[in-house]
Amino acid sequence: MRVMISGGGTGGHIYPALALIERMQQRGLLDAVLYVGTKRGLESKIVPEQGIDFKTLEIQGFKRSMNISGFQTNLKTIRLFLHSVKEAKSMIKTFKPDIVVGTGGYVSGALLYAASRLKVPTLIHEQNSAAGVTNRFLARFVDKVAISFESVSDQFPMHKIVLTGNPRAQQVAGMLPNERLHEFGLKPDSPTVLVFGGSRGAPSINQAFIDAVPAFNTRDYQVLFVSGRVHFDDVQAQLKTMTVNDNLAVVPYISNMPEILPDLKAIVGRAGATSLAEITALGIPSILIPSPYVTNNHQTKNAESLVKDDAAILIPETQLTGAKLVQSLDSLLATPDSQQAMAKAAKKIGIPDAADRVIEVINSII
Ligand SMILES: CC(=O)N[C@H]1[C@@H](OP(=O)(O)OP(=O)(O)OC[C@H]2O[C@@H](n3ccc(=O)[nH]c3=O)[C@H](O)[C@@H]2O)O[C@H](CO)[C@@H](O)[C@@H]1O
């Protein structure tokens, strides 16, 4: 099968696409793949690193404010979109895909719209429990919509929806502890917690971690803290003036996350949908601090789908402090029973065969 695929901007859109490609390769279903992204999104680094053919379109998002500068930006957005659709059509005619798949982000809007105009089979994947802007726009043009949460079904045409879960879940589901923690200077046999703010990092979580360092220094658990690439220098500058003990590791980004996840006792993070797919695929206890800065507050809805089944703890960003972070982790790690119960509840929600389910949908379209 020849597959063109696009997911842009953040890891939450990119990793599901890569997981689907990997599964198709494993099953011997893939003859050729072309990934379409933007130069500026994380995909321009992550995708070529995987040895996957990568082409770019130039595109940007709409501004909500309609003052003069917002209006001018939106005019440019429309111009770029129309130009990208033209470019995408020419890429599609050259590559001749059997299916075009979109996993979200503006760039997938141009590619999938172009594919639908050319009558090439199309599928979009929605990771979140509230539909993204691009997928809402694309829904009426594409053949099928694969969803990850039942609760999003009323936001798409009923006859197009299939509940598949997130392909990234299948990629991590079978992972066993790898003992890779020593690569961060941590001990493989000490309980370890990951603290991170999604694929781009989150300043509020970074600040809470920095404020918590003096307390974390005295704990018998380890903290692997990921700042996000753009925030790393700033975090390092602040930590330079403090004592950071060797039970704490600070890095800008983790490239091999599936190999690290099984080594973790708990995760503190945002409530991005792909992170939640990983947490539920493996059954990892988590403390979620949903980003309040996302469309329709979808991260809170994502988080609530775990919290309602006691599969995670939610801390609203407004209540997040260093002290709250330490106290929440202390009490979770001090009670193995609640860790186990949370892990079990999380695993119950996971869809570990999600990539195969998406492949089934693709087969049904082509
Ligand atoms: C601010 C924003 O718009 N965030 C959205 C974005 O989040 P974001 O890109 O942060 O997405 P998620 O939290 O869903 O997924 C992050 C992905 O990046 C990986 N990872 C992260 C850090 C790292 O160092 N290494 C690494 O590999 C994680 O393992 C995971 O696979 O996409 C998600 C999925 O559509 C949405 O739910 C989020 O609301």
From TrEMBL:
Subcellular locations according to the entry: Cell membrane
Coiled coil: none
Record bears the keyword Cell division: yes
Keywords: Cell cycle, Cell division, Cell membrane, Cell shape, Cell wall biogenesis/degradation, Glycosyltransferase, Membrane, Peptidoglycan synthesis, Transferase
Domain Glycosyltransferase family 28 N-terminal: 3-147
UniProt GO MF annotations: glycosyltransferase activity
Catalysis performed (reactions): Mur2Ac(oyl-L-Ala-gamma-D-Glu-L-Lys-D-Ala-D-Ala)-di-trans,octa-cis-undecaprenyl diphosphate + UDP-N-acetyl-alpha-D-glucosamine = beta-D-GlcNAc-(1->4)-Mur2Ac(oyl-L-Ala-gamma-D-Glu-L-Lys-D-Ala-D-Ala)-di-trans,octa-cis-undecaprenyl diphosphate + UDP + H(+)
Protein family per UniProt: Belongs to the glycosyltransferase 28 family. MurG subfamily.
Purpose: Cell wall formation. Catalyzes the transfer of a GlcNAc subunit on undecaprenyl-pyrophosphoryl-MurNAc-pentapeptide (lipid intermediate I) to form undecaprenyl-pyrophosphoryl-MurNAc-(pentapeptide)GlcNAc (lipid intermediate II).
Protein known as: UDP-N-acetylglucosamine--N-acetylmuramyl-(pentapeptide) pyrophosphoryl-undecaprenol N-acetylglucosamine transferase
